[in-house]
């Protein structure tokens, strides 16, 4: 598969190929885009120009199949997003094909008109005679076959293609109907009967497929009134075209199509449309010699068209057609039972007429009638509509002669002038032949009422009133009688020996025909009943007479019947209410059942739609994911290719530069396999090599050039003076020759100039006169132009003044508008500033309230902490007392060396300051005190508490050289005091809550938070020696905690 190219690139390439005459290559280039997998992802804005150009090339090259494939692909892409695009392309395709047909037709006409005739007296050329001998076509026909027929075929294929692409899609329904109407006009314009039949089949097939594809997303809904109306319009256009082309079978099929669509319509079609429908049906029935349904169609047409007709002439014409069509329905019609010979029985007649009944019912439904029309019914309906008053006078007289009057001996003579008058009208002349059949039938029916037998010559004398071409021979009369007898309308026997026609009256020897009791009684003017009719109706007449007699003798019968009738009516009225309620209840049940079914169908459809949407969404997501992955992969491949191409291009450029220098000798394969690094390395090596070679060559040249130049100059010195002399001689010679040539040329030019001056002096007065004339003329023109220019300048100045005034007025308006906007903006700024000031004041009040609230909370916290501190002090005092009691029970104070130091570094510093007399004694500073735990009593032995530093100091103190006894008394007293003071200090290195952290002794800060400790430190006076000393830590101060610098940032978890 070829790589995908951008649509703009393909279009540009095709345009270039078209410009150089390569139309086939341009079409192939455009066709490649349809075979690409990325065709469906291409935007329609880019594809539409390509499709237009593609269609142009397909029409120019007669590539109908390729155009169909391309349009089908484009339809699949655009029908769900932009249906107007495919409509535009299809219409452009049809327009181009139609233009080609018109162009070919004009070329054919021009070709026929431009035939050169050498001999004007010669009617035909030898070539035309030869072609005429082998073909019946004329010159124009042959020219059309060569020039026009191929394009007509292409246009027909274009219509087929367009209909196949646009079919069965609700979004493309309107262009589909438009193309169908254009195709019908094409068949009608060029009289393409075969193509018209195929077009009708195509449209019929597409209509049948509507139900098959009803479950599709954009299926055609014939329940929609507008859609159904468009289909009806197309079928009526098809019917009109079929009638114009005289394709009556297709016209009848079109009528059936229209009838099927009308049965689906919820709304009655327009009267004008139905009138056209019945008019075309009447023409179809007339062509098919079905006079009965032809008259019924005219009757239906008149019922609709009489309200449309505007003039009395139109009313008279329509009424005349309705009346004459009804009169022309033969009495011996095809709807009478029996179509076989005279030997068939009644069952044979009925069995053979099943097909006729089916066809009759079909035609009846096409006319929208509930039952089959009859001649008598049509005439009765015409009389009810007062058609006799509106019809032509001769037709009224014809009706009276055929249907009202009884004159068997003069009927033909009276009707002949009327038929002659009717035959003069081309439209009504087609009714003359069926009227003759009706006249003959009436003639024999009326003769049978008067005579038992009639000579054949007498009959021929009666029908001799009909002139040619409607005259009759004895054989034709005999044939007519046989047909009437076979159809059951006449009971006749022909006696060829006596040359007479006998009307059978022997009721016991003749079996009555099935049609005898229906046709002849209804369609004939009765003078008297025949004997056979009297016999057949004897029982019915007897029953009627007896019933009348009983009612006359016993009037109670009528009274009882009337009472029974009233009782039946009463029961009917009583039961009507119950039946009405039952009908309403049943209707409600049916409506509810219908609603439930509709809800179920709607729910099912909704679920199916949701499932389809979910499947479509999943498929779309999968497709998008696949497309994204493919796009990412293609992008990565493109980047890799670009990088590789750049690398190869750089390598080629570098190799080329190296080759141009002449030092690199590599083949194409070696260059292709080398990368940039290798080439750079080779380039460096080449440069170094060239430098070395250049230096060596320069060294050799410098060495060689000194000696060579010296030798050249020695040899050149004697030759310079000789060359100088030779050059001076040549320059002098060239100077003399040039001077001589210049003098000669100047003399010749001077002589020529004198001749010209002498010749021009003669015409100088004329020249001056002409010049003055021209100058005067030009001066006048100049003055006129200057005047016009001055006027134009004044006009422009005035326009400019108006423009300046308008601009100044506009500037004033703009300044006023700007001032108004400025004032408005200042007002808005003032309001905004006031609002901001109000909001700021509100925030300040809120912050003050919040600060006050925080101060209250802080005071409460400090008060609570003070209470906790007091409680801790009391607890510490009790522990000190307990410790003192314990030490008193033990029996005295421990040596000073063994007494642990109490508190932290501040407490120890305070203790050291208070024991000033013992400073000279070697009291160990690293002795730790046993700090009591808040969770229990202090450890026994006085030494196990604290961290590792305290324990290490205790070990060192225990192993010292000084003995406890050697310590002086003040030191012992100080130690005892320190021991007593440190008894309340917590153990070093143990966890202490914040409220209990601090040094023992009164000058140590109390337990609590940072505020309490900060207040205690600030309370310590610098003038006190103890305070000063307590703030200066010593090397021995080690309470197990790391010293932290002051005034530095400490995280909340590290603050003490």
TrEMBL record:
Q: Does the keyword DNA-binding apply?
A: no
MF-aspect GO terms: mRNA binding; translation initiation factor activity
What are the boundaries of the region Disordered?
A: 796-1056
Composition-biased stretches, type Low complexity, lie in 887-926, 956-990, 998-1009, 1019-1036
Query: From what superkingdom does this record's organism come?
Result: Eukaryota
Stretches of the chain forming a coiled coil according to its record: 587-711
Q: What residue stretches are annotated with the PCI domain?
A: 331-508
Give the UniProt entry's GO cellular component terms.
eukaryotic 43S preinitiation complex; eukaryotic 48S preinitiation complex; eukaryotic translation initiation factor 3 complex, eIF3e; eukaryotic translation initiation factor 3 complex, eIF3m; multi-eIF complex
List compositional bias (Basic and acidic residues) regions by residue number.
796-866, 873-886
Q: Which GO terms describe its biological process?
A: formation of cytoplasmic translation initiation complex; translation reinitiation
UniProt-annotated location(s):
Cytoplasm
The alphabetized UniProt keywords are: Coiled coil, Cytoplasm, Initiation factor, Protein biosynthesis, RNA-binding
Q: How does it assemble?
A: Component of the eukaryotic translation initiation factor 3 (eIF-3) complex.
Family, similarity comment: Belongs to the eIF-3 subunit A family.
Briefly state the protein's biological role. RNA-binding component of the eukaryotic translation initiation factor 3 (eIF-3) complex, which is involved in protein synthesis of a specialized repertoire of mRNAs and, together with other initiation factors, stimulates binding of mRNA and methionyl-tRNAi to the 40S ribosome. The eIF-3 complex specifically targets and initiates translation of a subset of mRNAs involved in cell proliferation.
In Swiss-Prot or TrEMBL terms, this protein is called Eukaryotic translation initiation factor 3 subunit A
- Origin species, per record, is Ustilago trichophora
Q: What is the lineage of its organism?
A: Eukaryota, Fungi, Dikarya, Basidiomycota, Ustilaginomycotina
